[in-house]
Amino acid sequence: MLAAVGIARYNNCMQLDSRAQTLLKALVERYIADGQPVGSRALSKISGLDLSPATIRNIMADLEELGYVCSPHTSAGRIPTPRGYRMFVDTLLTVQPIDETTVESRLQPRLQTASPQKIISNAAQMLSSLSQFAGVVMTPRHESVFQQIEFMRLSEKRILLVIVTPGGDVQNRLLLTDVDYSPAQLVQAANYINQHYAGHSFDEVRTRLKGELRQLRDDMTRLMQAAVEAGSDAMAESEEDVVISGERNLLSVTDLASNMNSLRKLFDLFEQKTSLMQLLDVSSKASGVQIFIGGESQLVPVEEMSVVTAPYEVNGRIVGTLGVIGPTRMAYERVIPIVDITAKLLSNALSHN
């Protein structure tokens, strides 16, 4: 089942014998279920192994020495470490079969809308709703294409740049110039740009300007170059890089909410988004579902947090990443297929939009 959802695998864990793997799997599953340290007596009952308590204690001591489990100071039981979670999700996890028809019936009506922005927002909301954690979608990277621009003289050396996108959206930008352009000059410059470059991205225009404006006066060239730079910035700022839904769900997760320092780091992640964008960008360069575990991956700033991600496509080209943010003690076997099928449905919805 792991291969069916294309989970990215890591090979940095030492091989364990079958008994140690069985005990580690049982321990992680029990700890995910109830959040309490797991003792040798409980492992003897739930593992299905016919082993003496002494043998189980010896194996657990070996697992602790290898860094897969640790003993909290307040308990004789053990809990998984980030290394233990990594071994579990890469090697031992059995992903639960998911009723794709049921999930699709819930998701597809939310993903059938005329607006790509609304589709992406709904996908983030559904990830949050299905997982009961936070859903996140990195929006597609669009080129800053414009359909028309206009210059409006506000006062001496102050010009308002008006940008109209192919979809009809309007962006404004104030230009402060060294030259006092007349209304006629502004019309001339706008007409030139609209005639030669409408329907192109500002990045394309920036490149072409270097070789095509030599016949114009230097002051007009400077105006057009300033317009392109300002237009590119305006278009970039108008796009929301990441859509997040369900952050408040994490306030009810004891593992995260009980530590104010962790909670502060978590909401800094949502507010500043730089680390989150870096993590999602890394995910977009890989295929299949990826799992980032706090305390192990430097991309995850909170030790008690994990992120399950998958890339999504538009017409066969990967354009972004989506995922679920939750505690390391999450039901990975349930979250993984939710992320996987949402990525596939979002890809289909955006490709046919």
List the SSEs and their pairings.
Blueprint: H1 18-34, H2 40-46, H3 53-65, E1 69-70, E2 79-80, H4 82-92, H5 100-107, H6 116-131, E3 134-138, E4 148-155, E5 158-164, E6 170-176, H7 183-197, H8 202-212, H9 218-238, E7 242-245, H10 254-257, H11 260-272, H12 274-284, E8 290-293, E9 305-314, E10 317-327, H13 332-351
Antiparallel strand pairs: 1-2, 3-7, 3-10, 4-5, 5-6, 8-9, 9-10
Helix pairs in contact: 1-3, 1-4, 2-3, 5-13, 6-13, 8-9
Q: What is the count of DSSP helices, taking H or I runs of 4+ residues?
A: 13
Could you tell me the strand content as a percent range? Answer: 15-25%
Q: Mind summarizing the main beta sheet?
A: 5 strands, antiparallel
CATH top-level class of the largest domain: Alpha Beta
Calculate the mean pLDDT score and round it. Answer: 83
CATH architecture of the largest domain: 2-Layer Sandwich
Strands, count: 10
Strand adjacency order, main sheet: 7-3-10-9-8
In the residues, how many domains can be counted? 3
Give the low-pLDDT segments: 9-13
Q: What's the end-to-end separation, in Å?
A: 31 Å
Determine the CATH topology of the largest domain. Beta-Lactamase
How would you name the CATH homologous superfamily of the largest domain? Answer: GAF domain
Task: Name the helix and strand elements from N-terminus to C-terminus, one letter apiece.
Answer: HHHEEHHHEEEEHHHEHHHEEEH
Helicity, as a percent range: 40-55%
